[in-house]
Amino acid sequence: MFDGRAVANFFIDRSIGSARPITAMTLLKVLYFAHAWYLADTSQRLIAQPFEAWQYGPVNRVVYDQVKGMGSKPITGRLKSFDPGTCTFVESAYSFDQELSKFLENVFDYYSHFHPFKLSDLTHEEGSPWDQVWREAEDRAVPGMIIPDELIMKWFREEGDSQRKNKGTLS
């Protein structure tokens, strides 16, 4: 399991390296899809921090807090996390094995081509984990609007197969 900011930095580096600029909204959605597909494929969490159901889809708050001021401008800076050893904020480093790196590259290469609003639509499908939490909040309080990993894993295992067949595989 990895810090969301480190995985986000991998995607930012991929974006810059492939000359495919990404916005905050795209980064947040690609991060969610990477977490979701990883859960579906391995039954393990990719991102340590939870995803929350916000108006425009799932959001990882620690990543959002650092990209929220970017608006629709491309992200060019790297995200930081607090280092208690030095009491400073440092760039969130990542070191993934070849298999995970390839997986993340595939997720980025596939989803980063979509318009941010299309990515939002994909996360808002009826019955999706976001939709279930959002609808539940209409009837009662849902503290933090956390989207449980179990919902994400179940949805992507059951509905994801049809998406993979219809839209191409990620692996």
Summarize the structure.
With 171 residues, this protein is mainly alpha-helical. The chain has 8 helices and 5 strands.
Q: Could you name the key traits of this structure?
A:
globular, 171 residues, 3-stranded antiparallel sheet
Protein architecture, described:
Helix 1 (4-17) packs across helix 2, helix 2 (24-42) packs across helix 4 and helix 2 (24-42) runs parallel beside helix 5. The protein is 53% helix and 11% strand. The chain is globular. It has helices at 4-17, 24-42, 61-67, 98-111, 116-123, 129-139, 149-158, 160-167; strands at 51-54, 57-60, 80-83, 88-91, 146-147. The chain has a three-stranded antiparallel β-sheet. It has one domain (4-162). It is mostly helical and 171 residues long. The model has no long low-confidence stretch (mean pLDDT 90). The protein is built from eight helices and five strands; from the N terminus they run H-H-E-E-H-E-E-H-H-H-E-H-H.
